[in-house]
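[audit] Reproducing an earlier prediction to check determinism. Same input, same settings, fresh worker. If the tokens differ from the archived copy the diff job will pick it up downstream; this log only records the rerun itself.
[audit] input (64 residues):
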Amino acid sequence: MNEQPVPKQSRMQAFGRHVMAAAVLLVCGIILFHFLFHLILWLAAVVAIIVAIIGAIWAIRVLF
């Protein structure tokens, strides 16, 4: 009843919003990629340490 017309955005404003959204999405993707990469690297290091400990225990039992 008492509605006022909403002005439409100009083409430059719409394009700027799309560019900003793409930049935010790119930054979020990079952050998530780095997080996952470091998580996988950490897991691989833990597994390598466990394998090294098991190997050392096995070698000591075989030698002595």
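[audit] rerun output stored. Observation attached for the diff report: The CA atoms of residues 55 and 63 lie 12 Å apart.
[audit] end
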